[in-house]
Amino acid sequence: AGVINIDKERDRLQKKVDKATLELDNVTKTLANKNFVERAPKEVINQKYERKAELESEKEKISVNLRMLD
After folding, report:
1. d(CA 36, CA 69)
2. Among 1-5, 14-18, 34-38, 51-55, where is mean pLDDT lowest?
3. What span, in angstroms and rounded, lies between the C-alpha atoms of 29 and 35?
């Protein structure tokens, strides 16, 4: 096993948090759109809610790892 460069790892994790945050914002906006919710098939809406939960969990796990590096 090699030595971890903490700064590089912090940057990598921060990029993952930023990406998850951006996607989470998009999913949240989609679910807040009444036209989408009224017209989309229930299956698609459920997939969006599942993705939202996955992103929230992923973001939290990455944030915990980031805090451990501080």
Report:
1. 40
2. 1-5
3. 11
Distance CA 62, CA 55 (A): 10
Can you spell out the DSSP letters for 24-58?
A: HHHHHHHHH-HHHHHHS-HHHHHHHHHHHHHHHHH
Angstrom distance (rounded) from CA 31 to CA 52:
9
pLDDT at 6: 92
Domain 6-69 has CATH 1.10.10: no
Handedness of CA 32, 33, 34, 38 (dihedral sign): negative
Residue 35: pLDDT band (50, 70, 90) is very high
- C-alpha to C-alpha distance for 10 and 24, rounded to whole angstroms: 21
